[in-house]
Amino acid sequence: MTVQAFSVRGEPDAGMKGLLPGAQFADAFGVAVNDDSLTARQAAERMFLRLPRWIDRLMKLRNLVVAPLGLKTPTHTKTIVADSIGPFPVISATPQRLVAGFDDKHLDFRVIVDVTGSVPSRQVTATTLVMTHNLLGRAYLATIMPFHRIIVPAMLRQVPE
To answer: How many domains, in total, are found in the chain?
Structure first.
């Protein structure tokens, strides 16, 4: 199974701009799946609720480091409720697309999980959009980027299993 980057840092494409107007960062990673019945919510659940242990540990470390800086940290466990996927509130959802994320004083972000096509070319794509508001938001984004580029593909690898 190959996870591939569809785009790199840069402006979000026209279809994504409406999901976070003003976003200064966008990237997308995707994976092929062999399940025609897979929905975007199911794909997001597999990504966020089947985290490899090393990602879970990194996220706990992140939460400890950023809490004193005033950045949001998850306030609930991995339990899925109708309006969240793991720690992220769901903004909108259809069978083909789930949009989650939140707005903070330092940055706003969205993670979009799209499921498109049909077997054998069915695809799950995870797109991240970020809009920073200040120096702390830009510093945070720059700090997490190397981890983000490793973590998102690792999370996507959980989808086909």
So the answer is: 1
